[in-house]
Protein: SulP family inorganic anion transporter
Amino acid sequence: MVSMNPRLLGWLRAYRRDDLAGDVGAGIVVAMMMIPQGMAYALVAGLPPVAGLYASIVPPLLYALFGTSSSQSVGPMAIISLMTASALAPLASPGSALYGMLAAQLALVSGAVLLACGLLRVGYLANFFSRPVMSGFTLGSAVVISLGQVRTLLGGALPHVHGPSAALGVGSIALLLFARRWLAPLLRRLGMPCGAADVAARLAPMVLVLGGIALVASLRLDRMGVQVIGAVPSGLPGLRLATSAAHWQELLKPSLLIGFMSFLIAMSGAQTLALKRAEKLHTNRELVGLGLANVGSALSGGFPVTGSLSRSAVNFAAGARTQLAGVITAGLLAGALVLPTGWLALLPLPVLAATIIVAVLGLLDWSTLRTAWHYDRADALALLATSGGVLLLGVEAGVVLGLLLSLGTMIWRESRPHIAVLGRIPHTEHFRNIDRYSAETDPNVLLLRVDAGLFFGNIEAVSERIEEELAAHRAARHLVLVLSAVNAIDSSALFGLLELNRALARRDVRLHLAEVKGPVLDRLRASTLLSELSGRLFLSTANAWNALARHDT
Amino acid sequence: MVSMNPRLLGWLRAYRRDDLAGDVGAGIVVAMMMIPQGMAYALVAGLPPVAGLYASIVPPLLYALFGTSSSQSVGPMAIISLMTASALAPLASPGSALYGMLAAQLALVSGAVLLACGLLRVGYLANFFSRPVMSGFTLGSAVVISLGQVRTLLGGALPHVHGPSAALGVGSIALLLFARRWLAPLLRRLGMPCGAADVAARLAPMVLVLGGIALVASLRLDRMGVQVIGAVPSGLPGLRLATSAAHWQELLKPSLLIGFMSFLIAMSGAQTLALKRAEKLHTNRELVGLGLANVGSALSGGFPVTGSLSRSAVNFAAGARTQLAGVITAGLLAGALVLPTGWLALLPLPVLAATIIVAVLGLLDWSTLRTAWHYDRADALALLATSGGVLLLGVEAGVVLGLLLSLGTMIWRESRPHIAVLGRIPHTEHFRNIDRYSAETDPNVLLLRVDAGLFFGNIEAVSERIEEELAAHRAARHLVLVLSAVNAIDSSALFGLLELNRALARRDVRLHLAEVKGPVLDRLRASTLLSELSGRLFLSTANAWNALARHDT
Structure:
């Protein structure tokens, strides 16, 4: 296992010359992906395309310094851009100076939240979304993003389509889909090595952008009404953050949601790649890296960023061995902005819209739906409900819905634990489920084994089941809970047991505990349960049986 | 166990004459509590006091017809009134006709939500709040409610206190506290039976209200500036609901939160009492009963209602045996409104404020905090954070925070499952944790036993731990996961195992499964894991050992 050095810049201290070629190659390839993606996702966020280039320089640099994944590519990402647009829509109009400042503020607050979470070491928050819910969230977001680009793609709202724009847009989609499906196999057949062909095919959007610019310039399509991005200010961005105090509070909630989702998105991508290389991610360091990347984006004219799985996978495939690849990407983007940027002005918007639509279609993951449908219908329904929630209620409500569905399906599963009535296998000290074994029971004693940790989500169900069993065993004056499979008892469950003990005592039934695990027992000693218990604490079920059963068998 | 008849009106069909005396007595006592409480909680909700009387007639009647708890007293309740006031504050000004209509609409939508949940049988939602979080929510709400009454209690905002009002208010608090602490013991010493003394002491607020009215009438305190409730319209309420379409959408979210909390509050009270009598609640029927009670409240000039633990406990203690007690309470309240209500006009508001403050102080439950603090610090912190959230962010944010903290503490506990490296006890077929037993291992094979169900909340932690163990056992070419303690694998965990299998295969490590439980195996057969597995499926750990170990021991 290539355990990453957890120290700051560990990868640089331990840098090996052998890794240089891979890092440089990957850095260049990712930069070529980043230029069209950055501009496209800035459009999704409702910002001028150049903001996407700004957000592609400082964030990957800071992530390289503080993050722990060797292949993570941090920068603009479609879903986070959609969330940015959704958060800012009620506060300012896209294109205004205020809108740009608020976008930066959103990145600043999201970054601060991520940073705080990292320093507080609450990285386990990454475990709050189930995989199907994440997939449903992505599905819904991808549809919303695609629909949002249709007008730009066609040069007007349906049915008023602008012919040249639509031709350019739809043609671009066709070319990009062709590249995705057929270009890599074609290059391979032409003799290119497998990995190189796959990576080269990912450069299609950049090639298309250059082709689009050339086409507009040669045919003067802009004079025919095809929208272009217009003048891109050359040079590096300065400090663009303005404090508009009135908006801080309104940005807090969306910042929390954006911070949360950018962490989930970055981690799910990084973990998949880390597994392939047996690399260890430090979750809390990832939070810090991602948080600083967002703060850096805010301070350099950008907007919220995260790790992009599509770019990270290319980074990985193109041979990135360390975070140096990210540094090189950042350097190239900065270089592109220092050079004259006049050539970018003629980039046609329908081409960018096409790259957005094809990119988000690539996020769709039908295999998760298919697998979940066959394996666990509840998870499949949670997936569909989450995507429906994003479509109908919006992306922010979708996050909350996803969270509730993830946790809800889990609580639902945990809320009915398996409980077995035990009996003794005759002439032994073994006790087994009487439904499965022919075991002897005693009318005076009811032995129940609970096969799950006790917590607030199941203690009521356990109490109800106990009442049912007591009703079915009316003669029993002793209830023995066999806790051999109980790994934990939370305080809600402790209160439940205290109440059960008192209620049973009033009805002349004694409550006993048996086979309590060491760590659980240690905790219980800090409560009053053991001293209040109407019955006794037994080391083993056999001890309880010998003490309580009538021994007439 | 007195299993309640799950059929509609089962209690009536099976009514026994013996229960009549208890039901009548309890119905009268609860009506005497309901009159001051109803008016007081209407004030908390920002409504005229008579609305509280309206909300005390139809709701208990409908609950009696459809609910399943024999002692539940449904009607106005402090926390739900606070949530009502909080929901309506941005939409209308208290006292206006619109405010009253919106309060009824809120009850209608909450009721419809509860009804829908009952018909959809999602009663397990009651398990979403941990006990400490519920306690923290109550604590925060009680403080907010008390602070909201200080101005009414003192007849003005501090430091501008109105002498006579303040004297009346503070004196009432003193009397109520005295009654709560000393009245029951005093009555007992005077020879009253224990139970009767406790119940009689709960009538102190009604006695105080009557005394307050007499005092105002005799000293004409109202002419000295003590605020009184004024004319109370006699007669029963008609249909008061007005549809103001524009507000429906704004009421949806608060209605969901109010419906959710009224269910949690009603269930936690009813469950405690049901346990004492071995009575079985039907959670989904409870949802229906509570939902219809709210719909009925809406249609009769009321506002959101729920079960009140303080009244239900008195109902129980006063001898209520069936839902007839609730019917009698409703009848008495209706009777009180049909009779002339002029005498109520002089009821001084400071006295009502005093009853509110003393009632919500009675909701405080320090023992939960104390117990949780010693037993489970994380739960105690969740309690404090929830109450702080209600105080600082408001009652609605408090519900969401409570939900996230309940589920968050649980995920956090589940996110680090116990995993043991197993070895063979020499010359046996038993395999045990090598940290605890001197067991033999084989460099070629790594045996790991996971002691928890696998789900989205822990699969990443499990994968990480597996990587760590593989790094520590570099020679191992076979990883055997012993799943004897795994009760379930959700689809997120399935994807995790699929990825682990592929990643290990690439690194030339085979993944095997052993001791997979029957139900888990059945589910896995619906996935591709078993066919994709690089290794094999073993019935027992011993089989895996015999097949994979080098047998040089």
Q: What stands out?
A: The longest strand of chain A covers residues 419-424. The first helix of chain A runs from residue 10 to 13.
